[in-house]
Every structure is written in C-alpha cells, then in structure tokens.
Design goal:
Residues 111-198 form the Peptidase M48 domain. By secondary structure, the chain is mainly α. The chain has two domains: 1-80 and 275-303, no CATH class; 117-272, no CATH class. The protein has helices at residues 2-23, 31-57, 68-74, 82-123, 158-163, 166-182, 184-197, 202-223, 229-242, 259-270, 277-299, and strands spanning 134-136, 143-146, 153-157, 252-253.
C-alpha cells in the first residue's frame, strides 16, 4: 500500500507542479530548461498515474508492478475482485487513450503539413528579399515554419515583406529557422494530445499556453544569437499591430494576435534578466527526478 500511496503522491505532485509552473515567470529567463521540466512533469504524471492504478490492481499478488504483471498474466487475473479489476481496467484504458490520442495528433499534423506543402508548391514563390524562404502573395502579415523530418519550410507573406525592413525580416526568418532546427513541433505534440484527452480541464489548456509561449521565447533566444534583439522586438511589435491571423494547422508562427505574450517576449528581448543560479540548478535537478522517481517505484516490491 505504501508504494501505491507514493505513486499517487507523485502523480498529485506533478499536477501541483504543473499548476505552479503555469503561473511562474522565472521560466521566461530559461525557456529551454522550463520546456524540459514541462516535458518531465507530463511524462512523470503519466507514469505515476498509470502506476498507481496498476499498483492497486496488483495488491492481491504482493509483488509490486514489475513482478506482479507477469504473475497476473500467468493466472489470467483470477485473484482480482471487482475493485482490483476496475483499477486494472482504468490503467489499461488510460494508457490506451493517451497513446491513441498522441498517435492521432501525430497523424493529423502530418496530414495537415502534407496538404500545406502541396499547396505551397502551387502558390508560393521564391524572392531574393527572403532568402531560403517561400513567399505567398497575400496582403496580410504572416510568417511561419512548416517543420519536417527531412526539410522544413519557412513561409512569409507579401504583406510581411511590405511590413518589415530588411533587418527585421532577417530576424523573423532566424526565429522561424530556430523552430525548425529545434523541432519545437515535437515538443507541443504531447500537450496537444493531452488537451484532446482532457478538453474540459482548464489546467491542461494553461499548460499548453505556457509551453507555446516558452518555445517562442526559446526561438527568440536562438534568433538573437545571429541578429540584434532590437530587430526581432521591433518586428514582433509590427506583427502585433498588424493583427495577424493564426498560423495554419501543423505550423509554428512568429506571432499571434494576442498582445500579452508578444509584450512579454519584447520585454525580455530588450531587457534580459539573468536567472538566479540556484533556481536554474533546482529546475535541472527536478527534470530527471520527475521521471526517474515513478519509474523506480514501479520496480520496487510492495512494502
């Protein structure tokens, strides 16, 4: 029972951690570490929650999870009463739903990107003003990345070329290339699928919003390695004023029409603040802990 309680406590701790992290602002100073912590919390929650349910189901075997599952399979779960069988079915159902929704999210994104790439092949063009990017003849402001395994496409609109000067455009292109290089689309996929599983839970939506902002900040940081921060900040403000529409499905855009995240990004670009070392080290230590602890609890015998 102690192992079951510990797994349940870890699952609850990851939920409370996600709640606190969704409101935190220190994450803006080190977005890459914060993204890793978000991923660890999500994975740790899944391992701990499924493990807690399995631990309840396997209590009659008194062998823990790792050794109890083969024993249960050997006697076809004959020892399980209604309560323990319900816990087993809940664990199997949760695992199935999470994996199915993740696979569904991957399928939908891949299909949307394939369609968009086919459309770009018909209507997009090259332009010397935006090297290594595709240009759409549209008056609205748009700039986004279409990630891919073998190649990624950066797309800007004619409206963007008219909106930005050469330096600002170069900063925006650097931002979008950062999304492609760091495969931020893969970071978002588990959170998109989690929102599909729990669409009515507000915390899940806040988690996705927080991670989306962090990957934009991470791309901002990579872009300013190559371009002055002021160029990207000015470009973001111009995009916000132009009120761009949402990026196409399966893509990552440089800016949305929401003023608050844009202003947060501009402020950290123009007035960067160093992250205290103790906070950074604590977050780095929490990343493996959130994953390793529930895994260890899976392997321990009941005590």
């Amino acid at each position: 029972m102690i192992g079951t309680a510990l797994l349940a406590a870890v699952a609850l701790a990851t939920v409370l951690g996600a709640h606190g992290l969704s409101k935190a602002r220190w994450t803006w100073h080190t977005p890459r570490i914060a993204i890793g912590l978000w991923q660890a919390l999500g994975l740790g929650w899944g391992i701990a929650t499924i493990g807690a349910l399995l631990s309840v189901a396997l209590l009659p075997y008194r062998r823990g999870i790792v050794h109890g599952v083969p024993r249960m399979a050997g006697d076809s779960a004959a020892r399980l009463d209604a309560v323990h069988m319900a816990a087993l079915l809940a664990a199997v159902a949760l695992t199935f739903v999470l994996l199915t929704m993740l696979a569904t999210a991957v399928f939908r994104v891949v299909r949307a990107r394939r369609r968009h790439r086919a459309l770009l092949a018909l209507v997009a063009r090259g332009d010397s003003a935006a090297p290594d990017a595709l240009v759409l003849d549209h008056p609205g402001a748009a700039a986004y990345c279409v990630p891919g395994v073998r190649s990624s496409k950066v797309v800007v609109s004619a409206g963007t070329l008219a909106l930005l000067d050469d330096k600002e455009l170069a900063a925006v292109l650097a931002h979008e290339r950062a999304h492609a290089r760091e495969r931020h689309d893969l970071v978002l996929l588990p959170f998109y699928s989690l929102r599909q599983v729990f669409p009515q839970i507000g915390l899940v939506g806040r988690c996705l919003d927080a991670v989306e902002l962090l990957i934009e900040m991470a791309a901002d940081d990579r872009a300013r390695r190559h371009r002055p921060a002021k160029e990207l900040a000015t470009a973001l403000l111009r995009f916000a004023a132009a009120r761009p529409g949402p990026a196409p499905s399966g893509t990552l855009g440089v800016a949305a029409a929401d003023d608050i995240p844009v202003l947060a990004r501009v402020n950290r670009l123009l007035r960067p603040e160093p992250q205290p070392r103790r906070i950074r080290l604590a977050a780095m230590a929490a990343i493996p802990m959130a994953i390793v602890l529930p895994i260890v609890l899976w392997t321990l015998p009941p005590f």
